[in-house]
Design a protein that fits this description.
Number of helices: 5
Radius of gyration: 18 Å
Distance between the termini: 35 Å
Largest sheet: 11 strands, mixed
CATH class: Alpha Beta
Helix content: 10-25%
Structural class: alpha/beta
Shape: globular
CATH superfamily: Nucleoside phosphorylase domain
């Protein structure tokens, strides 16, 4: 049975300080948030993953591990609509996501951090909109798929922390859970893709539909198919573990430096989207 988000006396109403910033992560970043309280809330789209409430850099933050506790959800089984909707109901207006990715671009190396500026959607079966059966029809603009304000803050924070990041890349999102074939990677390369992963879409689209700012920090855990003989998931986990402290440092500095007032097109995305 779902818990109503508007139920009198609900834990949402009793939150002392609603988080305006959310982090959507893979597994293992829960320690990033200080003073943690774990909650589960219901949405019209089902149950989201558990959410951890706490603080980063003196700011209230909600952290949501998209794959659930113990990395139990495959990428195509993640309830993206419930996750984004729940964060918005909690009060979050900005989202920073982390994504483990393979590199298509030969200039990128293992453990590199990359801030994508665009994406190509090759998912197939996911629910990609909140406005499926609504009137008027909504056509959300994705000319700038990632919030420019958050992207710029991440890049500046990286410089302050002396962390090297690539500040431009096209992320190709595939359905999964299988990994890609060499022929698919060659196709993505010819289309202009730099990175390949399974979790960047539809998070960015759904966030824009709810007028939430969204940007991503990708970390390279493997060379894509055809660029190495064989991919082992154990190797991916090892690299993700080694790079975690760097990601935590970058996220903390970014959240600390995010301006209080929004100056980006994300916050009024619906204004000209109604047909």
């Amino acid at each position: 049975m779902l818990v109503s988000l508007r139920r009198k006396g609900s834990r949402l109403k009793n939150l002392e300080k609603k988080p305006e910033i959310a982090v959507i992560s893979g597994s293992g970043l829960e320690s990033l948030v200080k003073g943690v309280e774990q909650i589960r809330i219901g949405t019209p789209f089902g149950l989201p993953s558990p959410i951890f409430l706490g603080a980063i850099g003196g700011k209230s933050v909600a952290l949501l591990p998209r794959h659930g506790l113990g990395h139990s959800l495959l990428p195509h089984k993640v309830n993206y609509r419930a996750n984004i909707y729940a964060l918005r109901q909690l009060g979050a207006k900005r989202i920073i996501a982390t994504n483990a990715v393979g590199t298509i671009n030969k200039n990128f190396r293992l453990r590199d951090l990359v801030i994508p500026h665009d994406f190509i959607d090759f998912t197939k079966l996911r629910q990609t909109t909140f406005y499926e059966d609504t009137t008027p029809v909504i056509h959300i603009d994705m000319s700038q798929p990632y919030c420019p304000e958050i992207r710029n803050t991440i890049i500046r924070a990286a410089k302050q922390c002396n962390i090297r990041v690539w500040d431009k890349a096209v992320l190709v999102c595939t359905e999964g859970p299988r990994l890609e074939t060499p022929a698919e990677i060659e196709m993505f390369h010819r289309l202009g893709g730099d990175l390949v992963g399974m979790t960047g879409v539809p998070e960015a689209v759904l966030s824009r539909e709810l007028e939430m700012c969204y940007a991503a920090v990708c970390f390279v855990t493997n060379m894509a198919a055809g660029m190495q003989f064989r991919l082992r998931t154990s190797g991916v986990r090892k690299i993700a573990t080694k790079i975690r402290p760097l990601i935590e440092k970058l996220l903390s500095e970014t959240i600390k430096n995010l301006p209080r007032n929004h100056k980006c097109p994300c916050v009024d995305a619906l204004e000209n989207a109604r047909f």
